Every structure is written in C-alpha cells, then in structure tokens.
Amino acid sequence: MIDTKQCKYCNVPLTGRADKIFCDPYCKSAYQYQEKKKKPKPLFEQVDKQLKLNRKILKQFNKDGVTTVREEMLLKEGFNPKYFTNYWKNEKGDVYLFCYEYGFLRKFDKRKKLHRFVLVQWQDYMN
Q1: Cα–Cα distance between 61 and 52 in angstroms, integer?
Q2: Are residues 71 and 35 in the same domain?
Q3: pLDDT tens string 25-66
Q4: Looking at the 3D structure of the chain, how many domains does it have?
Q5: Any idea what the Cα angle at residue 67 is, between residues 100 and 117, rounded to 5°?
Q6: What is the DSSP letter of 42?
Q7: pLDDT (tens digit, 9 = 90+) per residue, 56-88?
Q8: Cβ proximity of 29 and 87 under 8 Å
Q9: Which domain holds residue 117?
Q10: pTM for this predicted structure
Q11: CA 15 to CA 125: how far, in whole Å?
C-alpha cells in the first residue's frame, strides 16, 4: 500500500515531487499566515501599531493645528497616552507628548470636572 502525502493546508493528495508539502502557492501562503497568527506579536510590532494608531487618532481630531478634545473621545477610539515618540516642554512648564508630529497635553477642566486633551501639531519653534 502506497502512502500518499497530503497538502499541509487543505489535505488534498499531492502529486509531483516527493518532497512537495503544499498543492499550490495559495495553500503555502495561507498555511504560513495561519501559523504566524498563532505566535504572539513581538513587542516592537505591538508598540509600533499603537504609536501609529495614536498618530492617526490625533490627526483625525486635530484638523486646525490646535484644538481641545474630551479625554473619553480619544480613549474610545483606542488612543493610549502611554505611547508617545517625543515630548516638548513649553515656557510655562507644560509637557506636551507627541506621536510623531501630533502632540497632546492632558488638562483637568475644573468647571466641568473632567479631563481634556489639548491637541497640537509640531511647529518649528519647538526644536
């Protein structure tokens, strides 16, 4: 009895070379993608993904170069203020955190008793 090999992805009987593992390039690619998804993402990829998401959110909410947004609006979109690329300290001592060229400063609104983010875009004078 001859034992026929099967494709690792779709289990179709293989024909051709003796060392063949997949029936076609699609099955090979799909199998490799499936295996990669099983492994946890490296820390670098997780951090990079969050930084890019933060930048996208800041850009989306800051159309005018400077604006103020309620904290929960950004957090609802997936913004995480713990991830930033650089910072800038103004003359008053406020520290703006930046995700690439988009920055934010967390402030407490005493009247409304809630946190807000002041959003800015990087300017030449900040160097």
Answers
A1: 14
A2: no
A3: 999 999 999 999 899 889 999 999 999 999 999 999 999 889
A4: 2
A5: 70
A6: P
A7: 999 999 998 899 999 999 999 999 999 999 999
A8: no
A9: 43-126
A10: 0.72
A11: 67
